[in-house]
């Protein structure tokens, strides 16, 4: 009997496994597969008959075609700029011996504390037409164009400086794998700092560079908030165009077609980059690696240039969060004047958040949506990840592939599919209309976080030794008892960390919320965008700085719980090992 059939029979022996597979299969069909099929039918069968007229309609739309071109240009440019800046800040904080590297790292890590619409709105309120620094500069240069921070340059700058978080989180670990003995051997052979960097360091980093490049390209291709807020009329990309076309029934077919093009481009890109990545060979040349020590830049001129560039970038990174914190204690008139005095400082913005229901409601709505979605997706994927990891057969393999659809297709395409599908009664949900209700956004949030949660939990289950389960089985424990009393406690810390990261990333979500949110219960991302998209500053705009500070505080706590405590525990383990070795 084949191993596939044995695994399948073993899996279906448990009624709980069957129940989980049925529920998850229903969710996949209803909210992952059917909405995308409906989206395609909306494009090619608008009147119940097959038609491809939408392509001629799309190609004749100058705005639509320009947005397609702009999206690919943005994705290509970001793939270069984000990698250049990201690799540089990792090298100056983790590889080269730069003065004040710890302070530099803290500054470069600020985009991890806030992102999405919050970050873009913050940049707009600082550098935009009515931004503080723009108003300040106009006092000295009256002829200055107030819209200087608009268009492609503004979008690229903001997305570059906000997109280097992956380098700090993931490439830092790759730097730690570099063998110090290899570098010392190269030095003794007369290799220069640049030769060592090019021939030894970069090859070790290539796998991570490929992975981050894929994420960066996909992020640029489906970018929404930065082009929407900063792009202006001259630089709009696919996602803002999808949003614009989806707002009217007559142009929803164009929105669906653009979303389909975005999905096809994403699939082709993943296939090409994965093939390129598999074609390379990346390895460390030492079998017994020695911990890396920071390297001195021997050339005095090069050392001075690197220091200047590092600290100049640090100023660019820390200026927005510092000003945001300052602005949260001021009023809109002081920000608009470009001059803030001590008398302008006040706690009224924070008091309003605590006392005004209209001001606190978006924050509470975001917390409720984020908490519910994070808990549901983690709780569900705990069971699914366990089944997928333990039973490898045709059913689980296909289920795993289907649950990764939100990673393969762009978020705008999934959100638009949900909006169009459930704007009319559907038998799969008992004939109900979900669009315009509070339920549809929660479903969108859950769908968005399924792939990441499943992948991380599956890896966590895979790290548990098989003999743990074998011992429990010998003692007569059932599968559910083994899962509940042995496996679950082991993966619970990882599950809690994943839930915290999901919660943190959903708080200021705009891409899904703009399509699916309830008109009377809108989350924080919608509120912030509406407050900062106007041409004038007002008290509502000033509240966005308070929201941003609160989100930064929440993000700081989450990052500490997820990364800080684990790093602290790792340092303790290394200290105990050193003490034991001395004894």
From TrEMBL:
Primary location group: membrane
GO CC annotations, alphabetized: plasma membrane
PROSITE patterns per the UniProt record, alphabetical: ABC_TM1
Topology versus the membrane: Multi-pass membrane protein
Source organism, top-level taxon: Bacteria
Location(s) in or outside the cell: Cell inner membrane; Cell membrane
Sequence similarity: Belongs to the binding-protein-dependent transport system permease family.
Name this polypeptide is given: Iron ABC transporter permease
Transmembrane segments: 16-37, 68-91, 103-127, 147-170, 208-230, 254-273, 304-329, 363-385, 397-422, 428-447, 486-507, 542-563
Domain ABC transmembrane type-1: 68-273, 363-562
GO biological process: transmembrane transport
Keyword terms of this UniProt record: Cell inner membrane, Cell membrane, Membrane, Transmembrane, Transmembrane helix, Transport
CDD domains: TM_PBP2
Any Pfam family: BPD_transp_1
